[in-house]
Amino acid sequence: MRAALLILLASSPALALGSIEGEGRVSIQGGYRWSPDDHFEQAAAAAGNPIVRKSWGGLQGSAGFGYGALEWLEAAIDLFGGWESFDLDGYARFHSVSYGAMLGARFVARDLFFQGFQPWIGVQVGPTIINISTASFGIPETVVAGLAVSGGVMFRFGDRFALTLEARYLMARGMVPGIGGLNGGGGWFSVGFAMFFAPSMKRDLPVPGF
């Protein structure tokens, strides 16, 4: 009975997944960044400079590039950047900017349940630069190996275009001298647009004389 159920699921039109093999993708996204950090808040209070205005998030944006290595696997590169600000007692306003590039993979289910619905999950790693600045004193940039896990969905319109929704959690920390580590990652939530480049449909032509 279990075998019959597996055959039924595999043959179901709702689960007859499409393929992304050989397909290229370019996407542009923007949205909201939120980096909660109770550890830094406690460290700032212990140092005598408590937070007087928390960060309630900021803007972020990204550009992504992908290539379908298999029917369900995409190699992906993302360029990204995000910003937010906060205030510590006794100092001018702090600005936290994170940006970098990440390489990884996405596991994609094209046309899941209905045509054009394409959910995915992914993991990426790459250099992340965290720039924390204030007019009160200089802070050197921090370069770390950021790690991101993400998931989202694309709503495709034909073979070339799609609207995108994405949620990403980035793990990366910067440093404020005299206080401690600051979350430069957190949750990143995006909406955007994608364009696809379908694999070539050109077939091999017979060579004259053969």
Key features of this structure:
mainly beta; single chain; 11 strands; Porin; 210 residues
Write a brief caption for the model.
By secondary structure, this protein is mostly beta strands. It is built from two helices and eleven strands.
Q: Output the structural class.
A: mainly beta
Name of the CATH architecture: Beta Barrel
Spans of 5+ residues with little confidence (pLDDT < 50)?
1-14, 201-207
Amino- and carboxy-terminal Cα gap: 53 Å
| Total count of domains | 1
Q: Write down how many β-strands occur, each being a DSSP E stretch of 2 or more residues.
A: 11
Range of strand content: over 45%
Please state the CA-atom Rg, rounded to the nearest Å: 22 Å
Helical content (DSSP H or I, runs of 4+): under 10%
Mean pLDDT rating: 90
Q: If you consult CATH, what is the topology?
A: Porin
Shape: elongated
Number of helices: 2
Largest sheet: 8 strands, antiparallel, barrel
Written as H for each helix and E for each strand, in order along the chain, the element string is HEHEEEEEEEEEE
CATH class: Mainly Beta
The order of strands across the largest sheet is 1-3-4-5-6-7-8-11
